[in-house]
Amino acid sequence: MRNTKGRPDMNENVDLNMHFGHSSRRLRLETLVRLRWLAVAGQTVTLAIVALVLRFPFALDAAAGLIAALAIVNFVLQVAFPSTQRLDPIWTFAILGLDLLQMAALLFITGGLANPFAPLICVPVIITFASQPLRHAMALMVLATLCISALAFTPYPLPWYPGEAYTADPVRLVATWAAIVSMTGFAAFYAYRVSREATLLAEALTATELIVQKQTHLSQLDGLAAAAAHELGTPLATITVVAKEMERELGNDPRYAEDVHLLRSQSQRCRDILKRLTTLSTNDEEHMRRLPLSSLIEEVTAPHRGDRVKVTVIDLSDRTLEPVGTRNPGILYGLGNLIENAVGYASHEVTISVQHDKNHVKLLIEDDGEGFTPDILLRIGEPYVTSRKGDSRAGGLGLGLFIAKTLLERSGAQLSFENREAPQKGARVGIIWPRHAMEMHGV
Q1: What is the pTM of this model?
Q2: Closest of 304, 385, 376, 399 to residue 344, by C-alpha
C-alpha cells in the first residue's frame, strides 16, 4: 500500500551507506586476540584450581596442551599481523571456529556436558552473530550444535574427588544438551537482532549527516558566488578599461575591429553577471537567511505541484503573526521529504494545514491515497530497508522517513503518523514545534 521512500537524490546516500555496512562487518584482529588471551587466562586459572587446589584427577597433559595450542596460535596472530588489521568474514569465521573446536575438545576430555563450564561453548557463536554476515554465523551455529552433541558421548568422566565417580543419567544429559543448544540459539538470535538494529541506526544516522551537509552546502552557494564576484570585480574592471582603450584606438582598423568589439562585449557581459551575483548577495542576503513560515511552506511545496496531484495549503492563522527564523536546511529537507511521499501516494490531492499561535507551530500533511498499512504504522521511523508486497512502487522502506523524522526532531519538532478517520481515505502526518524552538533553530 504505502511505503516511505526518500527523495530522488536519497538513493546515492542509501547506496553509499550500504557500503558502510560491509566494512562494519569486519572485526579488528586485535579485538579477537584480546578475547582469546582472556580465554587462555580463564582456562589456565580453572585448570590450576582443579589440578592443584581441588586435586581432581583428569587428563592434565592433554588439557594443558590444548590451552598452550590456543596461546601459541594467538601469539602468532599478534606478531604476524598489525593490531589494526581488519579480518574478512571468512577469516573471522575460521578463527572463531578454531576457538569453538578448542573449547569443545577441552570440554570433551573433562566430562563433556557434565562439565559446569559447558555453556561457554556458545561464546564464539554469539560473537559471530553479533558481528558477521548471517551465512557465516549460521555455519558456526551448525558446527557448535555438532560439537555440543559430541560432548554428550564423551568417554571421559567429570574430574571429581578420587575414588568417586560423577555420572549423569541419560535424561539429565538430554536436558543439558537441549538447554545449551536452546541457550546458544536464543543468545545468538538476540545478539544478531541488537547488532543489526545498531548497525542500521548508525548507517541511517550517517546518511542523515550527509544529507545535512549537502543541504548546507547548497545553501552556502550564494555566499560563495558573492565572494567570487567581489574577488573578480577588480581584475575585470581593469580588463574593461583596457578593452575600451583598444576599441578607441583600433575600432576602425578592419584587421582588429571585430576582435576588439568582441572583447569589449564579453567583458561587459561578465560585469553584468557579477553584478547580478553581487545583488543576490547584498539585497537578498537577509531574505535568504531569514525565512517566514509561509515562505518555507511555499518553497517545500513548489517542486511537487503538478497536474496529477493538487497540493493545497490551508493557512488557519493570521499570517502577519507567523514565525520567522533562520533558514534551516534540515527542516526544508525533512518537510520536503514528507510532502513528496504524500504526493507520491495521493490519488488526487494533498492538503497541508498550517496553524500557529504564541506557543506552538503546527503542520498537518494529509493525502487521499490508501494510507499506511498497520505493519508500517508499527515500524514508522525505524531505519529498515525492505520492500512490501502488493505495491508496485515499493522500494526502500524506512530510511527516507527516518532521515526526515530525525532532521525535524533535531529542530525540536514532534511527529505523529496515522490514517485519516473513515470515511476519508489516506494518511496524515502531524508536525508540531514549540514556537520558540522553531524560531531558534530556524525555519
Answers
A1: 0.57
A2: 304
CA dihedral 101, 104, 105, 110 (to 10 degrees): 170
Three cell numbers written together for 302: 513548489
Those residues whose C-beta lies under 8 Å from the C-beta of residue 169, and which sit 6 or more positions away, are: none
Q: Which residues contact 223 (CB under 8 A, 6 or more apart)?
A: 281, 285
- Crossing angle of helices 170-219 and 134-151, rounded to 10°: 160
Q: Please state the rounded mean pLDDT for residues 124-141.
A: 94
Report the distance separating Cα 68 and Cα 73, nearest Å: 9
Residues 208-266 pLDDT 10s? 677 666 666 655 555 566 666 666 777 877 887 888 888 788 777 778 888 888 888 88
Helix, strand, coil share (%) of the chain residues, nearest 5: 65, 10, 25
Q: Look at residues 81, 86, 70, 75 and name the one whose alpha carbon lies nearest to residue 124.
A: 70
pLDDT tens string 265-301: 888 888 777 776 666 544 444 455 678 899 889 989 9
